[in-house]
Amino acid sequence: MEYLFVSPAAAARGDAVELNSKGIHLRFPLPGGFESGGTVRLRGAGKRGLFGKKRDLQIRVFFLNSLLPVEEPTGVDQALLDEVDFVLRYVRGDAAKGPLDVETLYRDFLVHGDPTRFQGVLAAWTGEDPVPVEFSDWLEVPGQVQVIERPPMTGVPEFPEPRRIYVAEAFRDDPLALGSILAHESAHAFLFRHGYYQVLNPSSKADPEKPNQLDPKDEWLTDLAVFGLGWGALTLNAVRHKGGRWWALGYLDTATIRLAAGQARRCPPDLVVAEGLRVLEEATLVGCTIRAVLVSENFGADPREAALLDSWSCRNVPLRRASTSLLKDLSDVVSPQG
Asked: Going edge to edge, which strands form the sheet with 39-42?
């Protein structure tokens, strides 16, 4: 069995596709109405058998939406733009080092059938420990990450630790859907470990004593975080075209997926990040437009900090708080405060 990944647009146009693998060089058209994941059988195109006769060659073909240029939607609500922009700015993996090689991931899974190997690549991409993955025939949703509360050793509450990821058995034969599910659940693991949910959704109604039960908005934010972590191609490739419309696997609609895939809004040249107490005081004093402020949990104890909080409150500046450890990851200064 050979595997081929092509653009759905090329298939829709009826263009011939090419296979170059292990000394095999073939060019052939796909049948009309061909769907992603289907198998093409080319008679006499395989290797020679015991008696010198060429065998048939089976090729499984997948459509990768990530091969297409992504156009950002127009007429999007400003609140949605702001939320997407916020998540993509503060949840970052190593996406800047280059695109994720999704074809290699898919091929490796098709050959070995091991979802834990797949997740291990995603974990390594963000410098995280891998999480074991199992297929489950009892799961009623596509995927689920099981987390446990780590007992605090120093008296300071610690964040939940991902223990295992489960994927519904129905997706064992669909590497594109599996990739999207593992990206989502791996993003859960990343956000849990670093306490990001407290920053992204401070008004969450989830019970902190039950880490396996998230607020519905947390799921939506997790799908957005996938793009910030550099795994967005896995979400794009799971979008299917059926019945004259596009269907997405997950919690984002296709417009939001396109928005996130286009890196939300490009940063305008006059938008900068200000860090440090003195810089924040100066920016506030001269009347700079402040889009949002992220501060540590204990910010405001100092009189100068309290004065800034009062000023921002009067100007209705959105304010979010984060743990000191999380703020250190985001900050470029030695002793971050805001």
From this structure: 2-6, 57-63, 39-42
DSSP per residue over 196-243, as a string?
THHHH-TT----TT-TTS--HHHHHHHHHHHHHTT-HHHHHHT-EEET
Summarised one tens digit per residue, pLDDT across range 90-100 is: 786 544 455 68
- Mean pLDDT for the chain overall: 80
Are the C-beta atoms of 152 and 158 separated by less than 8 Å?
yes
Check residue 158 and give its pLDDT: 57
Average confidence (pLDDT) over 134-141: 89
Q: Where does residue 261 fall: left (phi above 0), alpha (psi -120 to 50 degrees), or beta otherwise?
A: alpha
93: its two tokens: 């993996």
Q: Give the C-alpha separation, 191 to 177, whole Å.
A: 21
Nearest to 167 by CA among 116, 102, 107, 106: 116
Which is nearest to 228 in space by CA: 274, 265, 187?
Answer: 187
